[in-house]
Design brief:
Blueprint: E1 13-14, E2 17-18, H1 35-42, H2 44-63, H3 71-78, H4 83-99, E3 107-109, E4 125-129, E5 133-134, E6 142-148, E7 151-160, H5 164-178, E8 182-187, E9 196-210, E10 213-226, E11 232-243, H6 249-274
Parallel strand pairs: 3-7, 4-8, 4-9, 5-9, 6-9
Antiparallel strand pairs: 1-2, 6-7, 9-10, 10-11
Helix pairs in contact: 1-2, 5-6
């Protein structure tokens, strides 16, 4: 046998069939193995082919371009959370919520009126009161004040106990019931066949500051209609102020209560006279 010549196996027969003569092939773990080792098993004619294929595969791996990292991958590698900084920020937020500025107290104000059971007239008229309307700027529950013309301001933490429309409607009905001139005074949805209907619009409900003096102001327009025909019986409009002893929302609530009491006393008598 010549050194370096390919190994040959004699042909053999298996069950009458001729088996092909095949050289034994040795396996290697990587391309870094020398082709000489393979040449001792495969023969010199296979060394060049194997070496070429090995070099081609390795060159392909080296020539393969690197794929650029995505933004998300870059962010994962470049942005690392600073635990100490996060802890400091959380402590600062907690300290600001717990030891920061104290919450402001809110104050609510109501109107005063007649007390006790309402008086009723056995032969008096029945009066239905429609929902009150409020002019723009006065429908909010926060209390309004005015220091100069064409400018309306609001208290931050001083409020009426309910929206002005409901507040004034409820107190108006209390005054009319207490007058003793009516058999019933109820909202429109609670009376089936009222004799008269009252409609009202609030034009102003505010604190009025003039220099060093303060006034409570209430302005309303009231319409009394015949309930069956919707004919207007009369109008009752007023725009009144009441002096306050000091500049405070509590004094404004007291002044508005006084204005409404005086006006409803006159209005109750007038309605009763017209409906007789």
């Amino acid at each position: 046998m010549t050194l370096g010549a390919p190994l040959q196996r004699p042909p053999r027969r298996v069950l009458g069939l001729r088996d092909l003569a095949r050289p034994p092939v040795g396996l290697v773990s990587s391309a870094t193995k020398s082709a000489r080792q393979l040449g001792t098993r495969l023969g010199p004619e296979c060394v060049g082919v194997l070496r070429e294929s090995t070099l081609t595969a390795s060159s392909r791996r080296r020539a393969q371009p690197c794929r650029p990292r995505s933004r998300l991958q870059k962010a994962r590698h470049t942005i690392k959370p600073n635990l100490s900084l996060c802890g400091a920020l959380a402590a600062a937020l907690l300290a600001g919520g717990c030891f920061g500025s104290t919450p402001k107290n809110e104050y609510y104000y109501y109107l005063t009126g007649p007390k006790g059971h309402p008086k009723t007239a056995q032969k008096g008229a029945t009066l239905a009161v429609d929902d009150f309307n409020v002019a723009p700027g006065y429908s909010r529950q926060v209390m309004a004040y005015k220091t100069q013309e064409n400018e309306l301001r609001y208290y931050g933490y001083r409020r009426w106990v309910s929206p002005p429309a409901k507040l004034l409607q409820a107190m108006t009905m209390r005054h009319l019931r207490a007058s003793g001139n009516f058999a019933q005074v109820e909202t429109e949805d609670k009376l089936r066949d009222p004799l008269a209907l009252m409609q009202a619009t609030v034009d102003a409900l505010e604190e009025l500051d003039k220099g060093d003096k303060t006034y409570a102001r209430l302005a309303m327009r009231i319409v009394i209609r015949d309930a069956s025909s919707q004919r207007v019986l009369f109008h009752h409009d007023f725009d009144k102020t009441f002096p306050c002893t000091k500049r405070h929302p509590r004094e404004v609530a007291h002044g508005v209560s006084k204005i409404l009491e005086l006006e409803m006393r006159q209005l109750a008598t007038r309605i009763a006279d017209v409906l007789k």
